[in-house]
Amino acid sequence: MAWRSLPRLRHILRESSGSSPSRIGLWFTESRRSVTYMPRPGDGAPRAVTLIPGDGIGPLVTGAVQQVMEAMHAPVFFETYEVHGDMATVPQEVIDSIRRNKVCLKGGLKTPVGGGVSSLNVQLRKELDLYASLVNCFNLPGLPTRHENVDIVVIRENTEGEYSGLEHEVVPGVVESLKVMTKFCSERIAKYAFEYAYLNNRKKVTAVHKANIMKLADGLFLESCREVATKYPGIKYNEIIVDNCCMQLVSKPEQFDVMVTPNLYGNLVANTAAGIAGGTGVMPGGNVGQDHAVFEQGASAGNVGNEKLVEQKKANPVALLLSSAMMLRHLQFPSFADRLETAVKRVIAEGNYRTKDLGGSSTTQEVVHAVTSQLD
């Protein structure tokens, strides 16, 4: 982030050399950027992180992260809480822990299908106002895929849309479900996407929508994206209808850079992009807000695995290991994040230790040992 800002600062100060100090101060006030998921100032002291192992393969992959963190002597320690998808609500002590620590690492939580049971994943996002979901889908060297040069960041609005949960049965056999979208949340996610693109030297932001049918709701989303785009002239902006987006993703994914989407579309787009780039088992991500961040496997499809994977202990820990590297960078420990990412990528590139979803037969523990042996 600093290398991008410094030349710009020098340029501004040169242009302002004849300006009064108050004018320079005004520039700093006007151009101050809002907080994004990017690293925030830290003092380097060890940090407490709330840990939710979750359901299914969750305890396996979160356990893998704990082992690797210990092996690299990362300056974090975990407060572990048992939370399961069949609970009525997220326990208050867990919410309090995340509010206190600001950061959480989470395994998958199973969401019951139907029956009126609320998703704990959605509860967490709403309770902590984790308004942005970020999933990075990219090719890993040594892992063959149908497409090359894929490096897509899907940024999804995380609190509104079809996930608002506002539905009821009007009369028996007739259910009404509301898709709620507001100007505030649409502008907030659009600004987040452009800010992320700017800070990470990305070239293009694509808004995914269905405004040709949902003219008011998705029209509001597009209006917000267009307004924010005018403030970032150095970043190319375009729009694509969600059904065409899916077709373009599976035929020419390298055309996409940063994608910003409403809630439901983002879930579908992120999982599609993850499948194209190598599978959900290797894609990192997180849910972030103004004050808190929850890091987890980026793409949600099958994130709790199946019983056979759990019994054989062959769950893929790569996605959560890369998500924990994102977490380390968020906590202002970039050297540890780089070490972890490098070690994971070396293991994937060598190809000797891969779980079943990547074409191998390794156990979770064998992958962990391989990663720890690659730590510099």
TrEMBL record:
It is found in: Mitochondrion. InterPro entries: Isocitrate_DH_NAD (IPR004434), IsoPropMal-DH-like_dom (IPR024084). SUPFAM superfamilies: Isocitrate/Isopropylmalate dehydrogenase-like. Performs an essential role in the oxidative function of the citric acid cycle. Keywords: Magnesium, Manganese, Metal-binding, Mitochondrion, NAD, Oxidoreductase, Transit peptide, Tricarboxylic acid cycle. Residues 48-371 form the Isopropylmalate dehydrogenase-like domain. It holds the Pfam family Iso_dh. The gene is IDH1. GO terms for biological process: isocitrate metabolic process; tricarboxylic acid cycle. This is Isocitrate dehydrogenase [NAD] regulatory subunit 1, mitochondrial. GO terms for cellular component: mitochondrion. Belongs to the isocitrate and isopropylmalate dehydrogenases family. It comes from Apostasia shenzhenica. It is an enzyme of class 1 (oxidoreductase). Its EC number is 1.1.1.41. The keyword Metal-binding applies. The lineage of its organism: Eukaryota, Viridiplantae, Streptophyta, Embryophyta, Tracheophyta. One of its GO terms (molecular function) is isocitrate dehydrogenase (NAD+) activity.
